[in-house]
Amino acid sequence: MEMSNKERRYFEAKKRVKDLREFYVHLFIYILVNSFLAYINFKNGFDTYPWMLWSLAGWGIGLLFNAAHAFRINPGFSKEWEEKKLKEFLAEEENTQQRWE
Q1: Is the per-residue pLDDT at 98 higher than 70?
Q2: How far separated are the first and last CA of the chain, in Å rounded?
Q3: What whole-number distance in Å separates Cα of residue 100 and Cα of residue 96?
Q4: Number of structural domains the chain divides into
Q5: In the chain, which end has fewer C-beta atoms inside a 10 angstrom radius, N or C?
Q6: Residue 22: inside a domain
C-alpha cells in the first residue's frame, strides 16, 4: 500500500527530528567527555604534551559528519542530482526488463 504525500512528509519530518535529537545528544557527550579529558590533561601538565587535542580533532571530525547529516548539509550532491540519477537508474532498469520479456 502506498503512503499518501501527507503521511510521507510526516515520517520524513519525524526522521529529521530523530536525527537532530541524536546529533544534540552526540554533541553533549562530546563536550562532556572532552571537558573531562581536558581537565585531566591540564591537571597532569598540558605543557608536556597536549594529548587531549587528538580526541578533540578525531571525534570532532565525526561530529561534523553527524551535523552535516542532521542538518541536511550535502555539498557534493544536490537533490536535483539525486533525482536525475534516480530517473536514470529507473530508465536503465526498465530497458533491461524489456530486453528479457
Answers
A1: no
A2: 26
A3: 7
A4: 1
A5: N
A6: yes
